[in-house]
Amino acid sequence: MENESQKSRIVRFHWWFKKKQKRADPFHLSEASDGGEDEDDDYLDNVFIRSMKMDPCILTNELRIFVGTWNVAGRSPVGSLAVDLNEWLNLKDVADIYVLGFQEIVPLKAINVIGAEDPTEATNWNLLIGKTLNDKYGCPWLTPMLNPITSDNYQYAGVSDSERRFSVSGRTATPMRGQPNRCSRYKLMASKKMVGVFISVWMKRELLRRYRISSVKVCSVACGIMGYLGNKGSVSVSMSIEGTSFCFIAAHLASGEKKGDEGRRNHQVSEIFRRTSFPQLPQDGDNPHPLTILGHDQIFWFGDLNYRLYLEDNLARQLIKKQDWRALQEFDQLRRELEEGGVFQSWKEGNIEFAPTYKYSSSNCNRYSGGLPSRAGEKQRTPAWYR
Fold it and tell me: What is the DSSP letter of 274?
């Protein structure tokens, strides 16, 4: 799920340009308007946007960003999951930035939901991700990673090779034991865990030398039991690359197939929009207000959103067998909510050209749970995409 605000960003730059006048005016904007708000302003905006697209002086950079989500159902990142991770990251076609969201990295038992956060599983996942990304380039991943960020006031402190992280409060996170691995191709930029929801962002080291990376921050929003426990909710990362702000939101929303459960999911989306914020620091500019999700230039929302299919189980399985994804999407809850404006207004989703991802049997990843013949201990679940 992506939100793009290129036009609004250009228009904002247009007004900045008129006010500051720090370089020559290649489009003669000062001659076209006296700065007042009159009927020519809309026309001027459009002319400026078209001119921006043609201006050869504007530099653009292309970045390949892999955004993925995986509900690991409480499994620890050891053994067979290492092979699964390699296949999932598709390292034959590498990206510049990897943004990975996970759900249920710990079982959602009461002790994990209401107890103190344990960083162990998040650290293990970061170790596995770092090893998977860097082994491809013959870079053995020998040194343990930093502990995951625990404070929502985390702030990335520059691009130094000291391999340290500092929070806004001045406390230093646990440093790496031993010397930094200079061979590593990818660097962990940020990670955040809330109960079972986890996000991990990795970037090629060469990008840190080539581009200005700043304002890396994290935020978590718990909206599960009673609206405030962390069994459901989101973890987010905000960062700026060469002045373009990015926001990545990994979410795990309410489950349930009963009528009206989609309303609970919609409400949680609204709560995440309302409560996610990233504090501004003096180096971020003059705006003292926290940065919200919609305040970013590029936004990516992903996760286990738990939206279902408005379709009986046997009919859904028939369409899956025919690989008729278009017909299946006609019954998709999230698609209908998008069309009706119930959630994610003005957002767009990528094409779905793959089978529903929920719910596979724990004993056979090529078979959906339930169905016929029935197996002992398996709950009947209508397949769905759940994104």
Answer: H
For the sheet containing 233-241, what is the strand order? 2-4, 298-304, 244-252, 233-241, 213-222
From CA 303, how far away is CA 34, in angstroms rounded?
Answer: 48
3-state secondary structure of 341: coil
| Residue labelled with tokens 């970045």 | 63
pTM, to two decimals: 0.75
Rounded CA-CA distance 250/313 in Å is 28
For 180, which DSSP code?
-
Judged against a pLDDT cut of 60, whether residue 189 lies above it is answered with: yes
Q: How many CB atoms lie within 10 A of CB 242?
A: 13
* Domain parsing of the chain, residue ranges: 2-54, 65-306, 312-346+381-387
CA dihedral over 45, 49, 50, 51, signed as positive or negative: positive
- The token duo for 107 is 């079982």
Of 214, 199, 213, which is closest to residue 281 (Cα–Cα)?
214
Q: Which superfamily, per CATH, for 65-306? A: Endonuclease/exonuclease/phosphatase (3.60.10.10)
Q: Strand, helix or coil at 245? A: strand
**Each residue's pLDDT tens digit, 257-305:** 888 899 999 999 999 999 999 998 777 777 778 999 999 999 999 999 9
**How far does CA 137 lie from the centroid of its chain?**
25
Higher pLDDT, 54 or 140: 140
- Name the residue among 180, 191, 175, 195 with its Cα closest to residue 114: 195
Q: What residues does 19 pair with on adjacent strands?
A: none
* Rounded distance between C-alpha atoms, residue 12 and residue 19, angstroms: 11
Beta bridge partner(s), residue 101 = 69, 199
- Confirm if 145 and 180 have CB atoms less than 8 A apart: no
